[in-house]
Structure formats: structure tokens, C-alpha cells
Design goal:
Blueprint: E1 7-11, H1 18-33, E2 38-42, H2 52-55, H3 66-75, E3 79-82, H4 84-87, E4 109-110, H5 113-119, E5 125-127
Length: about 130
């Protein structure tokens, strides 16, 4: 398997734990902005950051919004994926407003966890 990424970051924490999630998103964006190719994956509660009400607001004072951090990763050549099952409420509680997943959904693409997991053997991976 080709090693196309330098770092993988998995965001598991959702809006109820914004400090943990923002720390991971900030680390991914910082690495991407310094030239690392980052694979960012939002899963479980982290997938809820795709909801309109979560991605554009400031979750932790002094940090950019989730959408801004995801944009840095994307614009730096990284990939942004999410678990489609988690957005279908199979891994998390019901997601009100699921039809409003548009704010940065165009930057994120559905991805399976198996590919992410297989790369964990060769690519540094952190989970927040």
C-alpha cells in the first residue's frame, strides 16, 4: 500500500467535548500548514462537526472554527473524511438537522474506517 500521508488524525470527540476535538483539529491544521500531508477522519461524535450548527461557530475561545481548520487541511493537499454510518445515527445519538450537512461537507468525503486502520501500521496516527 502506498504511503501517501505523513500523519493521520482521527476526531472521535464531538461537540460535547469541544476542547479535545479542537486540539486534534488544530494539530491537523498545523501539521498541514507546515507541509505534512494529513489524513483527517471524523467519526463517532466527531462526525457531528459536519452539522451546520457546529462547523461554523467558535467552539473554544481563541481557536478558529472547525470549518476553518478543516479548510486548512483540505487546501494543503490533505484529505478529510467522515464515517457515513455515524452521520446516519448508527454510531451516535440521533442527529437533528442532518439535512443541513452542507457547511463544509463539500470538503469532506465518506470514507470507511478499514482503510484508515490499515494505514495505522505505517503512518503516525493520533486520536482525539
Amino acid at each position: 500500500m502506498e504511503n501517501a500521508h505523513d500523519l493521520q488524525v482521527m476526531i472521535v470527540a464531538g461537540p460535547e467535548d469541544p476542547r479535545r476535538a479542537i486540539l486534534g483539529l488544530s494539530m491537523a491544521a498545523s501539521a498541514a500548514s507546515t507541509g505534512a500531508k494529513v489524513n483527517l477522519y471524523l467519526v463517532m461524535g466527531g462526525a457531528r462537526f459536519l452539522l451546520k450548527e457546529n462547523c461554523s461557530r467558535i467552539l473554544v475561545e481563541g481557536y478558529p472554527s472547525v470549518a476553518e481548520l478543516v479548510e486548512v487541511v483540505h487546501d494543503s493537499g490533505g484529505t478529510v473524511g467522515y464515517c457515513p454510518n455515524c452521520l446516519d445515527s448508527q454510531c451516535t445519538p440521533a442527529l437533528p438537522g442532518l439535512t443541513e450537512v452542507k457547511s463544509f461537507c463539500h470538503l469532506a468525503h465518506p470514507r470507511g474506517m478499514s482503510t484508515f486502520g490499515m494505514r495505522m501500521t505505517t503512518i503516525p496516527t493520533v486520536v482525539f
